Structure formats: C-alpha cells, structure tokens
Amino acid sequence: MNTEATSGTADTGATLGTNNPGTDMRSSSSYPGVAPAGGTAATDMTAFMSTFATMQDPVFLMTAASSNLLEIQLGQAATQRASNADVKQFAQMMVDHHTKATQQLKGVATPLGVTMPQTLMPIHQAMADKVLAKSGKEFDEAYMDAMETAHKMDVAMFEVKDKAADTPTVKSFATQTLPMLRSHEKMASDLEKKVD
C-alpha cells in the first residue's frame, strides 16, 4: 500500500482535480484521522470521526462515495448470505438507496472536478473485511453492527456539511440526504438489537 500521497490521480480512478494535488485514494494519509495499520477499530473510528469538522468538501464527497460503496457491497453480500429475512430485506434496501445516492453524489461531485473512488477507503475496507469473514447468524450480527456504525458515521459527517459546507451544492446534497441516513441509522439500530 502506498503511504505517500504523491500524485493527484490514484490508479483507483479517484482524483481531486488540479487544485488539490497529492491525494491518493490508496493512502490512509489521504484521509486525515485514519489510523495506520495496527490501530484498533475503535481508535480508527474515533480518530476518523474527529476529522469531520475540518473535512474539505472534496474529501467529504469521496468519503461519502466510499461509504456508499461499503453499504452497496455489504448489502449485496447480505442479500445472499444473511440468514434472517429482515436482514436480507434491509440489505436490499441499502443496495437500492445507496445506488441511487451514488448517482446523486456523482451529480454533485462531477461539476466540482471530484472523481468518485472505485475502491473502499481503509476505514470502510476494514469494516467490510470484518463482516465478510463471518457466516450464519454471526454474519447477520456483524452486518447489522457495521450498518449501525456506518450510518452513525455518515449522519455525523453529513450534519457537519449540512451546517458548514464550502460549496452550496454540497450543502444542499447533505441536507437532502440526511433524512434518509437518519432513517437508515434507526432501522439498523432496531434490527441490530433483534439479531443480537
């Protein structure tokens, strides 16, 4: 893994445009607050969430895109692997809603010169790996726990941009998306309690 961000374009297809050289999607250093390998998940999450208040709009858009990718990829896995019918139904809703949200996000990002990542950020990849390593009832529990955590992070991040985005279109996107994220967080929390 490249730990030095030296290029404006990563081979994942993620770019920030010419105004923001030095952002490489493969590098955890590109995402302030993402702890290097070896940190605990709790430390990573806390450090990552502490960056939201100062997160620039392009990094916010790429982080939101990575979160959408996480929720789509895990949702697709859960529609196949979950043992609980409610978890499968929730997973399909995640695929549908976050696929639509990705299209809306592209509509905001493209005019700003931000290209969406094709791979997960390290923090999201770690969450995916943890869920995908499980099977049976443990998969359902791990998936719902990840969905609860992912949506808590999303809501916190989108609330910051709802109040203080630099770009009007980013603020509008955050404002429009928050109700869906809050609804998903509540559903994930309720369902997570049922499968535990």
What secondary-structure arrangement, pairings included, does this model have?
Blueprint: H1 41-49, H2 57-81, H3 85-109, H4 122-132, H5 136-164, H6 168-195
Helix pairs in contact: 2-3, 2-4, 2-5, 3-6, 4-5, 5-6
Helical fraction equals: 55-70%
On the 0-100 scale, what is the average pLDDT?
81
Shape: elongated
The total count of strands amounts to: 0
Radius of gyration: 16 Å
Secondary-structure element sequence? HHHHHH
SSE class: mainly alpha
Number of H/I helices: 6
Note the gap between the termini: 35 Å
Main sheet? none
Key traits:
about 0% strand; about 200 residues; disordered N terminus; single chain; mainly alpha
Q: What does this protein structure show overall?
A:
The protein has 196 residues and is mainly α. It is built from 6 helices and no strands. It has helices spanning 41-49, 57-81, 85-109, 122-132, 136-164, 168-195. Helix 2 (57-81) runs antiparallel to helix 3, helix 3 (85-109) packs antiparallel against helix 6 (168-195) and helix 5 (136-164) runs antiparallel to helix 6 (168-195). It is elongated, with a radius of gyration of 16 Å.
